[in-house]
Structure formats: structure tokens, C-alpha cells
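Is this the right way to post C-alpha cells for a design question? Let me know if I should format differently. Anyway, here goes:
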């Protein structure tokens, strides 16, 4: 399994993805799951994948070769898509067709065909955006009411984002919250593991800053320790149940 999160605030976009894949507790490997298509000054598109690795990798390879949609004159790629929503359509079509091609053989072996994708970024002339694309090819767009989207093992990190993240949160604070949600997920689920890949994109910059966060990253280690300490101090500061005092 995996965990990926995208956070879209007024200051910009941050996307983080882990790299663990496993087929049981004794078969664990590291695979990159955050992929960036960038033409500086023209477009930057980031894709974070979760689910069946063969489905997502095959879909990404088909995207590189080009996808022909029913309403297009020829194959299109992420480098040629005129809008971010068109890029979403291309990715959705690629995932859907790969799943259909593989479905009979893999489902007969009880292999899950689930695959979901986060796509975020900006193409010149359009706004910075974030989408969640499902295995069926349909998608939803991130909005100001809930300024984040998650795929994979989302339940451990979701409460942190629900309580603290808003569209007015500065991007640097959103990054902090995203990493805290990863620290919480990492502690509770063996299916998620270091290193993490991250990209941050500012509005109209049309380029992204990428970083890999490993087990030896001093900031991530300090953040986890401080978060654990803060939780311990917070619960000790809470009033005791009145019926226990009675």
C-alpha cells in the first residue's frame, strides 16, 4: 500500500508520496510514486500514484507514448495537453484502459486492480489545480472547503489535516501539516514507509521544487519528536473527567 497527499492553498500546492510497496510483510520494496512533467515557464504537472503498481506504471508509460481520446485528432501527452483538466482526462483514460486490459487475468488470481492518482500543477494560462483520479477514469477536483486530497492509507493522517488545514494556511505550514500526517501514518501502518518524495509549486511559477525525505532527514525526525511531545503535553493539559473526580 502507500500514502499520498496533495494540499492546495492560496500560497501554492504541495504533494507528498511515500515509496513503499509490499506483497506481504516479507516482500517489501521501494518504488518512486511521485512523477513530474515540467517545461519551465510553460507547465508543471505532478502525479502521485497509489494502488496496483503494474496498473499505474503501465498507464504512465502509455501516457509517455501518447493517449488518443475519442474527441482528439491524434495522440496527446502531458507535454501537449492544452489545459490541466485535459491532462486529467488523459490520465483517467490511461488508467481505465490499462485496468480493463489487465482485469480478467489479474482478478482471476485475486489480485486487486485498484489504482488511484493525484494530479496537480499548472499549465500557462490556467490556474493551479489538484485532482483525484479514480480507477474508472473519473475525477474530482480539490476545492476551498476541503483543500486537500489523499490516496492510499489516508485514515491515519486525515484527522490532522481536517483539524488544522484551510485554504488560507501558508504553504510552509501546509507542508508541515502534510509531513506530520505522514509521521502519524508511518507510526501506525507498515504499508507506508520512507523515503518520501515531495514537490511544492507556487502559483504562476510554472516550475516545482522537489525534495526526497529519508530516514536520516534531521527536520523530519525533529518534527516527529516534537509532534509526539506536543500531543503528550496537550492531553496532560486537558481536564480530567468530572465523574472520576467525584
Amino acid at each position: 500500500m502507500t500514502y499520498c497527499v496533495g494540499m492546495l492553498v492560496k500560497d501554492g500546492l504541495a504533494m507528498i508520496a511515500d515509496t513503499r510497496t509490499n506483497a506481504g510483510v516479507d516482500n517489501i520494496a521501494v518504488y518512486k510514486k511521485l512523477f513530474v512533467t515540467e517545461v519551465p515557464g510553460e507547465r508543471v504537472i505532478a502525479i502521485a500514484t497509489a494502488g496496483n503498481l503494474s496498473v499505474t506504471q503501465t498507464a504512465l508509460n502509455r501516457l509517455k507514448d501518447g493517449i488518443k481520446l475519442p474527441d482528439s485528432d491524434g495522440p496527446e501527452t502531458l507535454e501537449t495537453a492544452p489545459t490541466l483538466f485535459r491532462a486529467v482526462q488523459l490520465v483517467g483514460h490511461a488508467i481505465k484502459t490499462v485496468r480493463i486490459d489487465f482485469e480478467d487475468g489479474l482478478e482471476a488470481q485475486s489480485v486487486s486492480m485498484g489504482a488511484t492518482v493525484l494530479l496537480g500543477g499548472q499549465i500557462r494560462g490556467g490556474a493551479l489545480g489538484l485532482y483525484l483520479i479514480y480507477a474508472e477514469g473519473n475525477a474530482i477536483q480539490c476545492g476551498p472547503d476541503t483543500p486537500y486530497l489523499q490516496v492510499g492509507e489516508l485514515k491515519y493522517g486525515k484527522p490532522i489535516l481536517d483539524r488544522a488545514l484551510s485554504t488560507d494556511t501558508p504553504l510552509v505550514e501546509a507542508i508541515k501539516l502534510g509531513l506530520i500526517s505522514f509521521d502519524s501514518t508511518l507510526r501506525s501502518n507498515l504499508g507506508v514507509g520512507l523515503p518520501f518524495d515531495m514537490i511544492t509549486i507556487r502559483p504562476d511559477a510554472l516550475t516545482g521544487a522537489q525534495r526526497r525525505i529519508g530516514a536520516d532527514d534531521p527536520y523530519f525526525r525533529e518534527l516527529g519528536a516534537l509532534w509526539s511531545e506536543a500531543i503528550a503535553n496537550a492531553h496532560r493539559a486537558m481536564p480530567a473527567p468530572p465523574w472520576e473526580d467525584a
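Format looks fine. Someone answered above. Worth noting: The radius of gyration is 19 Å. The chain has a mean pLDDT of 93.
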